[in-house]
C-alpha cells in the first residue's frame, strides 16, 4: 500500500510560501498517480491547540483553505480532502498513543520548542498544544500513510510518529507502518522568506503574498520588497544573498520568462552577475518578478473565484471526503483496539474466557 497524507492548519488563507513549499508538489504527486490513496487533512483540531480562544477564526478558514487547494489544482476525484475534527476515531488513536510518549520527549521536540517560544506560553503550556505531535501521529497512522509531503519544520513530527509506531508494534503487534517525509525540492522553496526579508512568510508577521491577492496588491507587495539596503544607485554593485527578490526569482523564474519579459538576459545567472557588478536597478528586477508572479497566480485566482461562486459544491466535497476518511480511519482504529484487547463486544472469546474463569 502506498498512501500519501498531508495537512494544513486552517488559520488563514494560504500564501505563495505554502504554494512553493507544498501545494505545487502535491499537485504533481496527484497527477503522477503513483499511490493507492491520497489524503489531505484540514487540521482544524490541531489549529485549535493554539487558537482555542478563537474558534471562529478556525471555522472561517476551513473553506478558505479548501478553496486554495482546489484553486491550485487539487482534484477531489483523486485526493480525499477531509476535516480533522469530524473524524472522531483520530481522538481515540491519540488517547492510546499518549501512553507511548513521555512528557520529556514532547518537550524535546525542536518544532514545539520553537513554537512555544513564539507563542509566549511561558510556564503555562496548554496540554493540548504540547501533545499535538501525538495527534499528528494519529493523523498519519489512522490512514496507514507512509508518504508525507511536508516542509522541513515537520520532520520532528514524522520522527515522533515513527517512534510511536515502533513502540506500538513492539507492545501490541506489528500493524502500523513507519512514515517518511518528502521535502520540497530546494532550500528557498522550503522556507520562502516574507516580502520583508524575514525568515519565513507568516500571517502574523504580515509579510505574505496570498494566492487570492488581487493583481494590484501583488504588485504593491513586490515593489515594497526587501532587497539590498546598500544598493542605492543603479550603478552600485548589489548583493544577491539575502536579497528577497532574487530568492523569489530562484524559485519562480524560468528561461521562458526572460524571453518574454527581460530579453536582455538569457537566464538568472546573467541577471545576477550584472546586478552584482552594478548597473541593474531594483525597480527592474521587481517589475520582472511581478510579471512572473502575475502570470503564475492569475489562473489560480481565477479558478478560486469560480469555485467560490459555487461554495456549496466545495462544502459537499469536504463532506464526501470526510465520510470516506471516517470509513478508513474507523477500520484502522478498530484494528488497533482489537490488538489492545479493547473489543469486548465483538470478541466471543472474551465472554468465553470469563465464563471459564467463573465456571459457568
Ligand atoms: N502540523 C502540520 C502543519 O502545521 C499540519 C498537519 C496536521 C499535518 N496533521 C498532519 C501535516 C499530518 C502532515 C501530516 O503544517
How would you describe this protein?
The protein has 360 residues and is mainly α. It folds into 2 domains: 3-192 and 311-353, Rossmann fold; 215-307, Tyrosyl-Transfer RNA Synthetase. The protein has 17 helices and 5 strands. A 3-stranded parallel sheet has the order 1-2-3. It has a two-stranded parallel ribbon with strand order 4-5. Strand 4 (147-149), helix 9 (155-172) and strand 5 (180-182) form a beta-alpha-beta unit. Helix 4 (89-97) crosses helix 8. The structure holds tryptophan. Tryptophan is lined by residues 5-9, 41, 43, 46, 136, 139-140, 148, 150, 154, 157. Tryptophan (TRP) is lined by residues 5-9, 41, 43, 46, 136, 139-140, 148, 150, 154, 157.
% residues in beta strands: 5-15%
Distance between the termini: 45 Å
| CATH topology descriptor of the largest domain | Rossmann fold
Kindly provide the name of the CATH class of the largest domain.
Alpha Beta
Q: Could you tell me the number of beta strands?
A: 5
Strand order across the largest sheet: 1-2-3
Largest sheet: 3 strands, parallel
- Reading the helices and strands in chain order gives EHEHHEHHHHHEHEHHHHHHHH
Radius of gyration from the CA trace? 24 Å
The share of residues in helices is 55-70%
Task: Determine the CATH superfamily of the largest domain.
Answer: HUPs
Q: What structural category do the secondary elements indicate?
A: mainly alpha
Shape: elongated
Poorly predicted runs of 5 or more residues: none
What ligands are attached or bound here?
tryptophan
Instruction: Please state the second-level CATH architecture of the largest domain.
Output: 3-Layer(aba) Sandwich
Total number of distinct structural domains: 2
Would you tell me the overall average pLDDT? 95
Number of helices: 17
